[in-house]
Amino acid sequence: MYLTIQAIVLRVTDYNDRDALLTVLSRNHGKLTIKARGLRRKNSPLIAPCQLLAYGEFTLFEYRGMYTINEAQSIELFSPLRRDLIKLSLGTYFAQAAEVISQEDLPNPELQSLLLNCLFALSRLNESEQKVKAVFEMRAACLAGYMPDLFGCHECGSQTPDKFDLAEGRLECTRCRSMDSKGIRMPINPAVLEAMRYTCLCDPKKLFSFQIGEENLTVLSQLTEAYLTTQLERGFSTLDFYKSLLI
């Protein structure tokens, strides 16, 4: 049986001296593991479309429960991103997070679109890395089922809360926190809150159409990172590497 998909490569793993396994995210079939025969050979025609973060069209055939690439063509390689180590490391973090969030054979077109849009923004748009990172993290958390409650303090309903509960994904006022309450709260201000609301609810085609000051952008990026990693209950080696490059 043959299957044609358009997918982005999330991970490449050596299989043997000649072949490799790819973890890809497709629009209609979700996350798939596919075998790339001869990928590790010099001058393999699969090198370009099968590299990490490449977006391409793959024709697969299935044999004994394993998909193997029959043909592959590149659609977008995000070349400018590959010439900048910091941007490339950030894109790799996005891919690792997408792999954790996605599921085998479960369609998730919104997640694929988010990943492609963020890689395009890093490659082609004049958007700051912090902004693209914050947008990806907040939207990815929502797509993973962790939409936060961003409309007033969960206790008193105040529209000017000053804390965000990372574990519960909700707002609160400092005065509303009980003495025996556990969990980490991060400071939040109206500008950061508005950016979070926009990122969660906006049209996917307008993800980056908001303005925020540099200082608040740093706060936003720290908060979205903490929220995603808290909800997923894990860290990311790719995120650690990206942050090491900023020191």
Describe this structure in words.
This protein is an alpha+beta fold and 247 residues long. It folds into two domains: 2-76, Nucleic acid-binding proteins (OB fold (Dihydrolipoamide Acetyltransferase, E2P), Beta Barrel); 79-245, Up-down Bundle (de novo design (two linked rop proteins)), CATH 1.20.1440. 37% of the residues lie in helices and 23% in strands. It has a five-stranded mixed β-barrel. A three-stranded antiparallel β-sheet has the order 7-6-8, with no helix packed on it. Strand 1 (2-14) and strand 2 form a beta hairpin. Helix 2 (85-101) runs antiparallel to helix 7. The protein is elongated, with a radius of gyration of 20 Å.
Concise overview:
Helix content is 37%, strand content 23%. It has two domains: 2-76, Nucleic acid-binding proteins (OB fold (Dihydrolipoamide Acetyltransferase, E2P), Beta Barrel); 79-245, de novo design (two linked rop proteins) (Up-down Bundle).
